[in-house]
Design a protein that fits this description.
Order of helices and strands: HHHEEHEHHEEEEHEEEEHEHEEHH
Distance between the termini: 57 Å
Number of helices: 11
Strand order of the largest sheet: 4-3-5-14-6
Oligomer: single chain
Strand content: 15-25%
Structural class: alpha/beta
Shape: elongated
CATH class of the largest domain: Alpha Beta
CATH topology of the largest domain: D-Maltodextrin-Binding Protein, domain 2
CATH architecture of the largest domain: 3-Layer(aba) Sandwich
Number of strands: 14
Radius of gyration: 25 Å
Length: about 300
């Protein structure tokens, strides 16, 4: 128990930069907190914390140990929370953040099934094509398409990987022709999503070959559904993640273009604040979405080439 208390104290000291604040958070006296920290450093035979006139800060060894210690404490809290959550009935308001396209196509159609399974949960969906700060906006779970979070207090759970592809309507291709090579795109009208990384260029790969082509937009928008609607009307060539246009491709409303070339893929994750004391409503939604993505085998569908 002393070792666990030492780890808890050390992590709080690094997080707060103060021995007294760490002691207060753990309901310890300053003297007891000092003894725990000294005992930890003595056992490890290394100085973990340096002091200046204003705050405490970790040494190089202390920073490395802090990362491992915090992970251990989070895993322990997560294990305890998982056991507790299994016996709880999820309830309350679950606040979810996702892009409009993802919310429309992959969350909203499932809310009925989710709330039927967990009838005491009320769902609020905040549709936004920008990443909202989870803490400031009171978000429980966010859907994001990046590999990692810059904030170490945010945990991610991967749902799937998806390709980004080019598509156009049969009407557009009949009028303008079908590009056979990335260089052909200079003669075409592109529909550009402004929140993509480097939206006005396309980085293609094919085996060991790679090429970057400019992608000036005839139409630019911060929302994928606006661009999809324009593509369906034959306005131009759309560049979007496969999940947004998958059903349109299956139905023949949109046709893949240059499908033997790859664009950088997107990783779809669920992001949520700190695993510590994860609520039953959050855990239930995360497990539900993971289950749904596995049941429908979305990653295989969204990463295949011409497999529609």
């Amino acid at each position: 128990m002393d070792r666990l208390k030492e780890l808890e104290l050390f992590v709080r000291v690094v997080e707060t930069g103060s021995l007294s604040k760490a002691a207060l958070a753990l309901d310890l006296s300053n003297a007891a907190a000092s003894r725990h920290l000294a005992s930890l450093e003595a056992r490890l035979a290394v100085r973990l914390v340096e002091r200046n006139t204003r705050r405490l800060y970790p040494t190089g060894e202390g920073q490395a140990f802090f990362s491992r210690a915090r992970a251990i404490l989070n895993d322990l809290a997560d294990a305890e929370s998982e056991v507790n959550s299994a016996t709880l009935d999820p309830s309350g308001t679950l606040r979810i953040s996702a892009s409009l396209s993802f919310a429309m196509q992959l969350i909203a159609p499932r809310i009925g099934d989710y709330t039927q399974r967990y009838p005491k949960v009320k769902v609020h969906i905040e549709a936004s094509n920008r990443y909202l700060d989870l803490i400031d906006n009171g978000i429980d779970v966010a859907v994001r398409t990046r590999e990692m979070e810059p904030d170490s207090n945010i945990t991610i759970r991967r749902l799937a990987t998806t390709r980004r592809i080019l598509v156009a309507s049969p009407k557009y291709l009949a009028r303008m022709g079908t590009p056979q090579d990335p260089s052909d795109l200079s003669a075409h009208q592109l529909l550009v999503y402004l929140h993509a990384n480097n939206p006005n260029e396309l980085r293609f790969t094919q085996g060991d070959a790679s090429v970057v082509v400019p992608a000036p937009g005839l139409l630019e928008s911060n929302d994928g559904q606006i661009l999809r609607a324009a593509a369906l009307e034959g306005t131009g060539i759309l560049v979007q993640p496969t999940y947004i246009v998958f059903e349109d491709i299956v139905a023949g409303r949109l046709v893949p273009i240059l499908d033997d070339w790859d664009l950088p893929r997107l990783h779809i994750n669920l992001a949520y604040p700190s695993r510590k004391h994860l609520s039953a409503k959050v855990r239930s939604f995360i497990d539900f979405m993971v289950e749904e993505f596995e049941r429908y085998d979305y990653e295989r569908k969204w990463t295949g080439q011409q497999g529609f």
